[in-house]
Design goal:
- The chain is α+β, with helices and mostly antiparallel strands.
- It folds into two domains: 85 residues; 240 residues, 2-Layer Sandwich (BirA Bifunctional Protein, domain 2), CATH 3.30.930.
- The protein is 39% helix and 21% strand.
- Strands 2, 5, 6, 7, 8, 9, 10 and 11 form an eight-stranded mixed beta sheet that branches.
- The longest helix is centred in the N-terminal third of the chain and has 40 residues.
- It is extended and about 85 Å long.
Length: 357
């Protein structure tokens, strides 16, 4: 045990990176590490031998784990020191001339999408970001056992113990805006609902807060054909192409019936997305005909009215159009990133003048 201790203490002290440190952890106290294998031998010892060897092995394992943690912290501190040394700023320098600010891609794409749908007669509707459980789930025909209602997927607000009132959530989609607008305006109606939404997820393509836009059109003779035309016109205008091919795949959403995922024909030549040509397909949104239960929740008679709805992620279509690889960068507040991907303040998107720079 003393030899093992000396060996790993020296190796840990000389480790030059976190990856090397992780390799040492696996070698020493991983499932098949040397110390772990020694601990498996305890079962073959006599009770007297175990009383001696057990505490020593546990102490050795704890010492190695502590040494690993201390070295990891030291490496992190060293990396931070190097970064601070290389990114220093002399605060005594004269101020720089004021630079013109830039528009965030999410704001720009929201304006682009709004301009496109406004040209097709859609008004913009907004609603609260903290919603009741009824507006966020029940009114949208989402049953109580649905996975989206689990606390691992949805952010619920705190309630005092014994509070019997229905819970509130950070809205998981902008669909509650559709219910509120139907209740306020009735039918016919044609709206889009852009805004922030919240879900418990975080990786390159998911963040706890992101942006979504949903559309709703209700009238007496609306069909899937109208939905297809609206989405085709949107994709052509947004990606600024003359022709586009959409593919509708049968799917299931509680708030629409029938439901369909929508793909666009595209190619990825040279790692660049080209819409309208190629042999690949890319999913961009979900859609369908509004479920009768949802119409009733909005005080609209489903025997007299029908309509379609669709929804897409603003951040996602911004990434596709402008070649942004990581969703998390949208929210890092890095001015260098914003200067690279941002838009000039006067780049107001219009269908006649062009949506993008």
């Amino acid at each position: 045990m003393d030899d093992l201790r000396d060996k790993y203490i020296d190796l840990i002290a000389n480790a030059g990176s976190e990856s090397a440190l992780e390799d040492l952890r696996v070698q020493a106290i991983g499932k098949k590490g040397e110390i772990s294998l020694q601990m498996r031998e305890l079962g073959r010892m006599t009770p007297e031998e175990r009383q001696v060897a057990g505490p020593r092995l546990n102490a050795l394992k704890d010492e190695i784990a502590s040494a690993l943690a201390a070295k990891k912290e030291a490496l992190a501190n060293h990396a931070l020191d190097e970064r601070l040394r290389s990114e220093w700023l002399d605060v005594t320098l004269p101020v720089r001339p004021r630079r013109q600010g830039t528009i965030h891609p999410v704001s720009q794409v929201t304006e682009e999408v709004t301009a496109i749908f406004a040209d097709m007669g859609f008004a913009v509707a907004e609603g609260p970001q903290i919603e009741s459980d009824w507006y966020n789930f029940d009114a949208l025909n989402i049953p109580g056992h649905h996975p989206a209602r689990a606390e691992m997927d949805t952010f619920y607000t705190h309630r005092a113990e014994g509070d019997e009132r229905p819970p509130h959530v950070l809205r998981t989609h902008t669909s509650p805006v559709q219910i509120r607008t139907m209740q306020e305006q009735g039918a016919p109606i044609r709206i889009i609902a852009p805004g922030r939404v919240y879900r418990a997820d975080y990786d390159m393509t998911h963040t706890p807060m992101f942006h979504q836009i949903e559309g709703l059109a209700i009238d007496k003779d609306i069909s899937m054909a109208n939905l297809k035309w609206v989405l085709e016109e949107f994709v052509k205008a947004f990606f600024e192409v003359d022709d586009v091919e959409l593919r509708f795949r049968a799917s299931h959403f509680p708030f629409t019936e029938p439901s369909a995922e929508v793909d666009i024909r595209c190619s990825w030549e040279g790692g660049t997305l080209k819409v309208g040509t190629g042999d690949d397909w890319l999913e961009i949104l979900g859609s369908g005909m509004v479920h009768p239960h949802v119409l009733r929740a909005g005080n609209v008679d489903p025997d007299e009215w029908q309509g379609f709805a669709f929804g897409m992620g603003i951040d996602r279509i911004a990434m596709l159009k402008y070649g942004i690889p990581d969703l998390r960068a949208f929210f890092d507040s890095d001015l260098r990133w914003l200067r690279h991907y941002g838009f000039a303040a006067l780049d107001v998107p219009t269908l006649r003048g062009g949506l993008s720079r």
